[in-house]
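Worked example 4.2. Below are the chains of a multi-component assembly; read each line carefully before continuing.
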Amino acid sequence: MIAEIGAFCMALALALSLAQGVLGLRAQAAHAGAAVAVAQVAALLCGVAMACLIIVFVISDFSVSAVVSYSHIDKPLIYKIAGSWGNHEGSMLLWCAVSALFGALFASLRRGQALGLWSKAVGVQGFVTAGALIYTLALSNPFARLDPAPLQGLGLNPLLQDPALAAHPPMLYLGYVGLSIPFSLAIAALLEGRADQAWAKALRPWTLAAWTCLTIGIGLGAYWAYYELGWGGWWFWDPVENASFMPWLIACALVHSAIVTERRGSLAAWTILLSILGFGLALLGTFLVRSGVLTSVHAFAIDPGRGIAVLVLLAVAMGVGFGLYALRAHKLAKPSGFAAVSRESMLVWNNFGLSVAAGIVLIGTLYPLMVEAAGGGLISVGPPFFNLTVTPVLGALFLLLPLAPLLTWRVGNARAALKQLLPAAILALLTLGLALWFSHGRIAPAFGLAIGVWLVAGGLIYLWARVRRGEGRLIAKLALLPLAVWSMSIAHIGAGVLTIGAIGETAFRSERAVALAPGEGAEFAGRRITLLEVGEIEGPNYSATRANFRVDQAGRAAALSAERRFYPTSNTPTTEVGILGDLDGDLYIALGEALRDRPGVWTVRLYHNPVVQLIFIGTIMLAIGGALSLLALARRRKDGPA
Amino acid sequence: MSWLTSLLIAATAGAALGDPAQEARALSLEREIRCVQCENEPIAQSTADIAADMRALVRERIAAGDSDAEIREFFRARYGDFVLFRPPMDGRTWLLWLAPLLLAGGGGLAIARMRRDGAPGEPEEGDR
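Applying the procedure described above to all two chains together yields the following structure tokens:
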């Protein structure tokens, strides 16, 4: 019964979303109230449907096909709940629900936007939600019944039974679907033939919110990979990771280009193009990843219905977007009016770097599929390609970054800005020299570290320059600093911190495999690691072999344990690594197997990941920067235009 | 895999190479060779038996004095291009390797064209 209520709510929501689309696109003042009400009810219905899905997962209703495939009676409650969106069908419903929710929020928070642009955006958003609902209802209905109902479910992949990964998909989806509002606004602007500063102002908070959610989502995924996959990797340029990184890059470009459009009215056409592209990549991220097409074109053959539907949806959204863009964008072109050295030009180069990076990631991710489809056999495009191509682009972008905030709009003074940045340049060159010296001439990582230091020092210099301008004591000066300055500085310094962490970890990690019997120890990375004992333990839905270690370093001792778990339901082993953080990085221990010829002796893989914490601290700073910037926009809105 | 080889691998897979430079080479190669059985995993990460087999093979080749390029070629000859995360440079992939330059060049041209219109005017202060 609950499942039928859920499916019924989805069908009703579909009808209402279509009504929202039609009412919105007609853009008549008399219908504005109705469009808002319809959007709100559609969001409510999608919320009820999502709640129904969570309930059937919590009560383990095995007459529902999705519950059978992804749940199990013995699974802890939190993963029963997370299981509801941890599968293709449920995640599509979540997508619809978020899309409807954002549509209702956007419709309700009109705040002086012009009727035509606002109403048409509400309408486009209605059609976006409707498209997703049609796909979900027709091809991946989470409420589909199974007859006869089995007594037990198959369980969720144990690798996914993890707090970070329970939160990872909803955050990504908030980000992906968040990009649907800029898309709707872009289409509305093209339909209306105008994109003014008020339009850009309406676009910015949604872009920022989407980017912040994507940052958190990707960060959670990377952190999960780091501690769960058992080899210390946190980013592997995997198609699935790339699928979330591309919309992130474009959203990041959009966050910056929308500033130019709002402040100076220029770059409107480019901002629109980015909005369309960002949503297209978000669609690619959700649909292609979830339908498995990215792994191989053969996934198409297994489930052609879904694959083709995905392509149709993508083609409709992008076809409408780019078609309108080709017809109307020239109407929106405005003389740019800025010098080669100015705040605008820096933001243009920012957009150049981020977009080229996104383009390379897109081509690299899809290339193996194209080669395979063209009969060229199987090839892999992985980290060696992306590290060689994307990293230098981002590096060049980061070289320019500290200059941007120090330049004025329209015409900037490069010499003055560079003079201000002199201490940062000296620090970066010192880092370069030291890194070259200590790494025996490894050029690429040394440059990477220097760029990270340049970003952090440059960000601090800008912050200090702004603080010094204030009046009164230091505390008063700090308190008077606009939130927008804080948010930008924290995000930019965070990018530097992340760079230092990423380069430091990737280039200077060390690892070693040892065979240890209880009581034996090994010297590694300036520590002595002793295996104390190995025992069997029982978890709620798994059994595990746990090894306890003692780590001695500089007169201090710490305890650490690592496990190999086995989940009988899905017949899958997983590793739970032991991680001991210290100032110089993480000691990371993964328990291997017992040696077959020497019972009681275990292989243990030891890793030392220097400055790895900076990767996650930098990511958190990026997210805080985004959140504060959102807060700054909200405040400004309350106080009236600044 | 026979019982005997699995025993051999269990005995050798964990063994680190004596020379730290060789060990570092092994670890870095293990991150760019793809496990042929798993879904998009390097052999460094995979827990599959075949990955352990392949890791042992990397160490064996290094101990035998092969260069990194020779080891990559060894795996490519055995398992095809698919096994290397570094795509080959040939008729199928020239577009892939050129793509970054094409994208950067196209973007640069677009910016140069855009810059030509409009006069800058006076400098303007601002928080953002």
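Take a moment to check your reading of the output against the notes. The mean pLDDT of chain A is 91. The domain at 510-615 of chain A is CATH 2.60.98 (Tick-borne Encephalitis virus Glycoprotein; domain 1).
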